[in-house]
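Reminder: ligand-aware prediction takes two inputs, not one.
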Amino acid sequence: MTSVSNHLPTAELQALDAAHHMHPFTTNDELAAKGARVITSGKGVFLRDSEGNEILDAMAGLWCVNMGYGRDELVQAATRQMAELPYYNTFFNTTHTPAIALAAEIAKLAPEGLNHVFFAGSGSEANDTNLRMVRTYWAEKGHPEKSHIISRKNGYHGSSMGSGSMGGMSYMHAQGGMPIPGIHHIGQPDWWAEGGDMSPEEFGLMRAKELETKINELGAENVAAFIAEPVQGAGGVIIPPSTYWPEIQRICEAHNVLIIADEVICGFGRTGNWFGSTTMGIKPHIMTIAKGLSSGYVPIGGSIVCDEIAEVINAVEFNHGYTYSGHPVCAAVALENLRLLQDENVMDHVNNVAAPALRSALEKLAEHPLVGGMNVAGMMASLPLSPDKDKRAKFAMDEGTAGFMCRERCFANNLVMRHVGDRMIISPPLVITPEEIDIFHTRATLALDETYKQLKDNGML
Ligand code: PMP
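Here is what comes back for the chain with 4'-deoxy-4'-aminopyridoxal-5'-phosphate:
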């Protein structure tokens, strides 16, 4: 039996990691050459690594550790459930109390008319469920040809064949035969990068109208659903102009196209409401959930389904499901996480304390000569780096070069900010305090100063 503990020297852990562990979305040979950072523990908004560094995690892991690290209540919920019933499935006419309670609680929190939950193990799985469910819905209604899905370039819906195909990441589509047939991508509402001289409002409307053009091109009788994140996360925290979602809603209603709101990042408080759909004024038929549902402590995802679709799907055998759909331990932890969010008034903390403090820290960072703007929705934000902020200009070198340099300077200053291209991404635990946001601001300023100097020294600015 291989014995690996946090007490081993970092270099030894890195060598073993490089020898056997294939990392997601990584050039593993490059990583092996420098060695992965070994994270050993977490408390609140801070991570500790094998070298003893205390790192402020302004990404909440991968946008998920909303309650922060080290919450004993979540550990206890898992322990209790493991002792009582560690696993049972929900396939063969059986159920269990964690799945019953969690589905009921989610239905209580979800917007009106969304009262049914199909569980999955992740956001990707849940979006694969959605793809099959909307097609099955229309087929059962006598419209099997109403099967095409429209989504957006640079949207992210997961990494499996179905969800990755619905996502609009060209670098993912370049590998492994994606997108599968029947998926179509329209432009994204990214005014900062693509809006040119248009006002954000004009641009938002123009991008929404691309949906109508695409529906007309395919024929509304062939289009099952439109899927989108209320606020794009992995694409760079792209907040649509105010004109965008109302027009999308109008178009979908006019053409009888279902709306799937991918709430994997936006859900459970990230934008200051329980769901990003509420923040953005969207009335979806299905919402994808994962990540913040369990604060990332255990893997769980799901689809919150409206009454109308559930009525049709529940009338037939839907030949779909996962071994871990509604896993009792994951469901028990998610339920406890939802209790904490409510009992500790986390939404009030976000709206009255954390989000205003984060916004003012970001406003100060946006004055930095390297920062070309600011996108913020509650507790998710991005700072696009730019050589000329007035023109919203891009750098002359490959996209992502400056962003990567900045991410490395963040790490060196004990701060996790992710980069998407040349945008720096911020999505801290929702429970972050104003004092911790001050630490974020100090470290981010240092990282930006160092990146600025590095770019200048290398003749890149
Ligand atoms: N949808 C969105 C909006 C996401 O951000 C993600 C993950 N970043 C997913 C789906 C996929 O979730 P998972 O990685 O749990 O499969």
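The longest helix spans residues 434-457. The chain has 17 helices and 15 strands. We will return to this case in the review session.
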